[in-house]
Amino acid sequence: MNLTHFRFETDSDGIALATWDMPGRSMNVITPEVMAELARIIETVAGDGAIKGCVIASGKDAFSGGADLTMLQGLGIEYAKLRKAKGEEEAMRVFFEESRRLSLLYRQLETCGKPFAAAIHGVCLGGAFELALACHFRIASDDDKTRVGLPEIKVGLFPGAGGTQRVARLMQTGDALQMLFKGEQIRGLMARNMGLVHAVAPKDEIVAKAKEWIKAGAKGVQPWDEKGFKLPSNKVHSAAGMQIWPPANAIYRRETQGNYPAAEAILSAVYEGLQLPMDLALKVESRYFAKILRSKEAAAMIRTLFISMQELNKGARRPADVPPTKLKKVGVIGAGFMGAGIAYVSAQAGLNVVLVDRDQEAADKGKDYSHKLISGQIMKGRAKTADRDALLARIKATADYAELKGCDLIVEAVFEDPKVKAEVIAKVEAVIGPKTIFGSNTSTLPISGLAQTSKRPNQFIGVHFFSPVEKMLLVEIIMGKKTGKRALAVALDFVRAIKKTPIVVNDARGFYANRCVGAYIREGHLMLMEGVPPSMIEAAGKQAGMPVGPLSLNDEVALDLALRIVKATKAQVGADAVDPQQEKLLTIMVEEKGRAGRKNGKGFYDYPEGGEKRLWPGLADIQPRQMKPEDVDMAELKNRLLVAQALEAARSVEEKVVTDPREADVGSIIGFGFAPFTGGTLSYIDGMGAKAFVDLANSLQKKHGERFKPPRIVRRMAKEGGSFYAAPAKAAPAKAA
Ligand code: NAD
Description:
Elements lengths: L5 E5 L4 E6 L8 E2 L1 H16 L5 E6 L7 E2 L1 H18 L1 H12 L1 H10 L5 E5 L2 E3 L1 H8 L2 E5 L5 E3 L13 H8 L2 H10 L3 E2 H7 L4 E3 L4 H10 L23 H18 L4 H13 L4 H16 L2 H18 L15 E5 L3 H12 L3 E5 L3 H20 L5 H9 L1 E4 L10 E4 L5 H12 L7 E4 L6 H5 L8 E6 L8 E6 L5 H13 L3 E6 L6 H18 L3 H10 L6 H8 L1 H15 L6 H13 L12 E2 L7 E2 L3 H4 L11 H21 L6 H12 L8 H8 L1 H15 L7 H9 L17
Parallel strand pairs: 2-4, 3-5, 4-6, 6-8, 7-9, 8-11, 12-13, 12-15, 13-14, 15-16, 16-17, 18-19
Antiparallel strand pairs: 1-2, 9-10, 17-18, 20-21
Helix pairs in contact: 1-4, 2-3, 2-13, 4-5, 6-7, 7-11, 10-11, 11-12, 13-27, 14-15, 15-16, 20-22, 20-24, 20-26, 21-26, 23-24, 26-28, 26-29, 28-29, 29-30
The protein binds nicotinamide-adenine-dinucleotide.
The site of nicotinamide-adenine-dinucleotide (NAD) has 23 residues, from helix 14 and helix 17.
C-alpha cells in the first residue's frame, strides 16, 4: 500500500502493523489525508484474507494529539459560504455529513470484522483516543508521558467521533460523564483501573503484546455489538438510572451555570445515546456535534484557547531577528511568596537558579517551598525522590549577590517599594555580565520608572507572574519605554522554557491583566455599597462565568493591597481616578474593622477553622442601604461584571497597552479566568457585535456612571462596522526601542 502518513506491514503471523508517523510534523494529528489513509488501511485489513488483524501504533514520541482543530474550524467557514450560496438546508446537510465523517470511519473500523488494537505510548487525546476507543483492544505504555483523554470540552467542543457513546459503555455513567465534563488527561495505569484501556506494559512491549492479543484469536467485535450486552450502569430508565440522572443534571448546572452548550450536549448525547443501539446512538451524537461545532462558544474557544494560545506559545510576538537564547542560569531576587514560586518553576524546567534574599535564612525558606511542592508531587506519584534531589540541587539559595555572575536572566521579586527595588537593581547590575537581562516582577510600579534607576534600560523589562506561580499559566511581559528587542526575546525564551504562555504589553498603570481584574473587583465593591445582598453579587459573578465572585477574589488578593492601590492611584492620578464609595468601603473594612482578606482569616468572608468560608454578616452594617432581593436585576449584575472588564480591555487596546487581540483574549482567560465560553474580553465584545456592546455599555453608563462609557475604538466599530479581529492579527513583533 502506498501511504504517506502510515507505514503498513504484515508479519509472518499475518498480523498487520500500521505505524502512524506523519512526515514533517513533530506530532500526529487527524487531517483529511490521515482519514483517507486510515480508510484504506481498514479496507485492506478487512478485505485481505491473509491478514488476521491490525495493530495501530505511532512512530513518534507520542501517539497523537487528536484532530486538527483548524480543520474543524474550516468546516464552519465552509458552512457559512454554502449557506449563502445554496441556503440553510443544503449547507446543514453537507455540514452534518462532513462533521460526522470521522465518526463513521471509526464505526467502520470497529465493525469491519477483523480485530484492531491500539498500542498507545505518549499522549493520545481527543480524536486520537476516540480512534483507540473504537479499537477492540487498547494497551498503554507505563511511561510517565503516556496520557489518554478527551479534552474537547476545554475548547467548547465535545468528543464527536463516538467518544461519548463508547466511554459511557465502558464506565459507570457517573464516571463517564465526569470524565467527559472535565476533559482530564489520564495516565496509563489509571486508565486501566477506570476500564478505558485493557492493559499496561513497558513502552517497548506494547506492540508485541497487542500482536499477541490478536494472535491468541481475538474477535473483532466490541462488547456493545454483542448480543446481551448490558450497560455498566444498567438502563437509563431504571431504579439505577434514577440515582444517576437527576444529580447529573444538577452537577452540570452547578459547574457550568448553563454557559457551555457543549456540556449540555454531552449530557443529552449520553442520555439519549444509552437508550439506543450503537449506530443510532452515534447518529445522535453526530447531530449534537454538528450543532455544537457551529456554536459561537466553540468558535471563540477554539480560536483563543487553541489557535491563539499555540501561536503565542510558539513565539508569535518574538522578534524574529534575535537568535534564540538557550537559558542555563537565572537569578531570582527575593525568596518570598512570588520569588520562591519563580525559582521552583525555573528549576523544574531544568534551569540552574540562584535564589537571593537579604539573609541566608530567608533564602533557604524560599528554597524550602520547592522542597514542599516537589514532595507533594512525590506523594501523588508524579515525581520520584531522584527528581526532588536533582531539582533542589539546581537551586542555590544565598544572600551573596556575587553568585549571580553568569546568569542569563534576573527576575526581581523583592518588596513592592521603589527604593528597595532601586537598591537591588544597583547591587545586581554591579555583578552581572553585560548581556544579562533584568526582569522585574512588579505588579504596580511602571517599568519605565524602575528602568530609570538601571544603567542599561534597554536590557530592563517586566516579567509579571501571577500567583500561585506554579499553577498560573500566564506571564505578562512588559515593555518599558526603552526596553530593547533582545530583552524581549530573552524574556520570551525564558517563558517558553518554563512552559508558560506570554503576552507582551506596553507599560501602563496595572499593565493589562490587573486593570481588568481591578474593574471586576471594583464593580463588586460598588454593588455592595448600592445595597445588593452580598450573596447575590457573588452568585452573579459565577453565573457570568467567572471562577469566583468579586468579593471572594478580593479576599484572595487582600483588601489592604486593594486599599493601597486605590490610595496610590488617587495620589498619582488624582481624586477623580478613584471611586469614593470604593475607597470608603475598603477604608472601613481594612482600617476600622481590621479585615484584610483570607490572609488574616477575615475579609468579606469569615474563615472559620476547619469549616467552610461564609460571607461576613457584618457587611450588612457597612452597607448604607439594603436592596430587597426581588428588586435586584441579576441579568444586569452579570452584564456589569463582564462589561466592566471588557471595557478595560478595549481601553487597553485604544491606549496601545495591548497591541494584539489574541493576547487580550488569551491573557484574560488564563490570567484571571474571564468567562472562558466568550473566548476572552475582546471576543466577548466581538461576539455580541460592537453595536450591541456599545448600546449595552451606554445603558449601563446612564444608570451607573462614566466608568461604563465605551471608548472611541468600540464606538467607531459600532458605527463603521468592524471588530477587534476584523484586521487579521499578524505575528507582529512588539515595538522595541
Ligand atoms: P514577599 O513579601 O512575599 O517577598 C519579598 C521578598 O523579598 C522577601 O522574602 C524579602 O525578604 C525579600 N527582599 C526584600 N528586600 C530585599 C533585598 N534588598 N534583597 C533581597 N531580597 C529582598 O512579596 P511577594 O508577594 O513575593 O511580592 C514580590 C514582588 O512580586 C512584588 O514586586 C509584588 O508586587 C510582585 N507580585 C506579587 C504578586 C502576589 O500575588 N503576591 C503577584 C505578582 C507580582
